[in-house]
């Protein structure tokens, strides 16, 4: 196959904000991807937890094609059937009563943070504006969301940051109690820390946040951009904890590969986003919502959600077996089909070497910092694809850490 463009063209035409792998994916089917040369790769990365139903799922192709032949865009001067269908499913399946659509997780989080401050402003006045989030968290790349995120490497160098933001320690309720006050308008948390290493929140911690926020008239905001839409084995991770947030954000897997995000909240809180207070040009467009509605219909079933746990256990067993033979890793953390494989301290910084070796072996994985291999495969990945991916992973690990 003769390719018109190659990886070398990236430096010629693209802003160098990324460092993509050497090959160019050109086709995907299920949990396999092929490059320009026809070589296949098992996809354990899922486009960073986005391709929740794998590549080229026929039902999503049908939904996209059908809507593409009807209506693409009308703006939010009007509403549309696919947006209402998707919002209705989200409301029926969660704590939420109202939905705001955006184009990404960052936009959904921006909306959530703005709503939290607006509610506090309207109810209590300007002094109640402070936001608490967590060290190691990630909430997006806008100036507001990157400041709320707890990783300085993403927020430094862009001038003054929004004021009133502080960071507690994840899974440490005492650290939150020391920061929260009657000036706090919201606590924003990922129920499972994603970019920071796939670290699940303990039930005591998450439930304690609910109690602290209520005691201080603050809102509890769950960032479920990565953990949502079945990733952990529940439709949303909050459903594992026996509590409900006031605001929840979702994106990534919701579109199965089509850009979409959403903020979910109650009817009472939604009133504070009256006409003109917040908006978006493309959010809630018919194309994205038609696909999102079909994604949710497929995933929000006992068969798919139950299958997440079965598949997760199969992968976890395989990784544990590799770790026994190649003891370079400290621990495996996972929540559903979302894995963080932590390197031992003596191998700090070498996760990138494992990812590069995996690429050479025909396996797509991710990083969560310099010391963690992250995996977020399709929720319906087949047993055959799992087993082949694990075999390729073992060859990659063996090449980096030979015994």
Largest sheet: 7 strands, mixed
Distance between the termini: 38 Å
State the CATH architecture of the largest domain. Answer: 3-Layer(aba) Sandwich
**Unreliable runs, pLDDT <50, ≥5 residues?**
none
Structure in words:
The chain has 403 residues and is an alpha/beta fold. Helix content is 38%, strand content 17%. It has two domains: 9-56 and 302-400, Aspartate Aminotransferase, domain 1, CATH 3.90.1150.10; 71-299, 3-Layer(aba) Sandwich (Aspartate Aminotransferase, domain 2), CATH 3.40.640.10. It has 14 helices and 17 strands. The strands form four sheets. The protein has a seven-stranded mixed β-sheet, with helices on both faces. The protein has a four-stranded mixed β-sheet with strand order 1-2-3-15.
In short:
The chain has 403 residues and is of the alpha/beta class. The chain has helices spanning 9-13, 46-49, 58-68, 81-93, 105-124, 143-148, 152-155, 173-179, 203-215, 267-270, 286-299, 302-325, 351-360, 383-400, and strands spanning 25-29, 32-35, 40-43, 98-102, 130-134, 165-168, 184-189, 192-193, 199-200, 219-223, 247-250, 261-265, 329-334, 339-343, 363-364, 366-367, 372-375. It folds into two domains: 9-56 and 302-400, Aspartate Aminotransferase, domain 1 (Alpha-Beta Complex); 71-299, Aspartate Aminotransferase, domain 2.
């Amino acid at each position: 196959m003769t390719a018109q463009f190659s990886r070398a063209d990236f430096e010629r035409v693209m802003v160098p904000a990324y460092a993509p792998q050497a090959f160019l994916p050109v086709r995907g089917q299920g949990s396999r991807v092929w490059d320009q040369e026809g070589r296949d790769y098992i996809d354990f990365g899922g486009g960073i937890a986005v391709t929740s139903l794998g590549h080229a799922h026929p039902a999503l192709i049908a939904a996209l094609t059908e809507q593409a032949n009807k209506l693409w865009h009308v703006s939010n001067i009007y509403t549309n059937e696919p947006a209402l269908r998707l919002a209705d499913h989200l409301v029926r399946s969660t704590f939420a009563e109202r939905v705001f659509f955006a184009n990404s997780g960052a936009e959904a989080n921006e909306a959530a943070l703005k709503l939290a401050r607006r509610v506090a402003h309207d109810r209590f006045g300007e002094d109640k504006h402070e936001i608490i989030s967590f060290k190691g968290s990630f909430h997006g790349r806008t100036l507001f969301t990157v400041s709320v995120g707890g990783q300085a490497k993403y927020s430094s160098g862009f001038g003054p940051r929004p004021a009133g933001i502080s960071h507690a320690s994840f899974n440490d309720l005492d650290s939150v109690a020391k920061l929260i006050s009657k000036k706090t308008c919201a606590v924003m948390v990922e129920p499972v820390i994603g970019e920071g290493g796939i670290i699940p929140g303990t039930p005591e911690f998450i439930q304690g946040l609910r109690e602290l926020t209520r005691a201080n008239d603050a809102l509890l905001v769950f960032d479920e951009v990565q953990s949502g839409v079945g990733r952990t084995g529940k439709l949303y991770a909050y459903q594992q904890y026996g509590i409900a947030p006031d605001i929840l954000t979702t994106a990534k897997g919701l579109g199965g590969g089509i850009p979409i995000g959403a903020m979910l909240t109650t009817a009472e809180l939604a009133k504070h986003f009256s006409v003109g207070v917040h908006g978006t040009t493309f959010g809630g467009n018919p194309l994205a919502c038609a696909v999102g509605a079909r994604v949710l219909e497929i995933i929000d079933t006992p068969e798919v959600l139950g299958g997440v746990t079965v598949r997760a256990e199969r992968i976890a067993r395989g990784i544990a077996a590799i770790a026994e033979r190649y003891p370079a890793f400290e621990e495996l953390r996972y929540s559903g089909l979302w894995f963080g494989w932590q390197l031992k301290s003596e191998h700090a910084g070498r996760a990138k070497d494992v990812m590069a070796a995996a690429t050479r072996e025909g396996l797509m994985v991710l990083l969560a910092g310099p010391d963690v291999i992250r995996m977020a495969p399709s929720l319906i990945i087949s047993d055959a694809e799992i087993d082949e991916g694990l075999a390729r992973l073992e060859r990659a690990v063996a090449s980096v850490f030979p015994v």
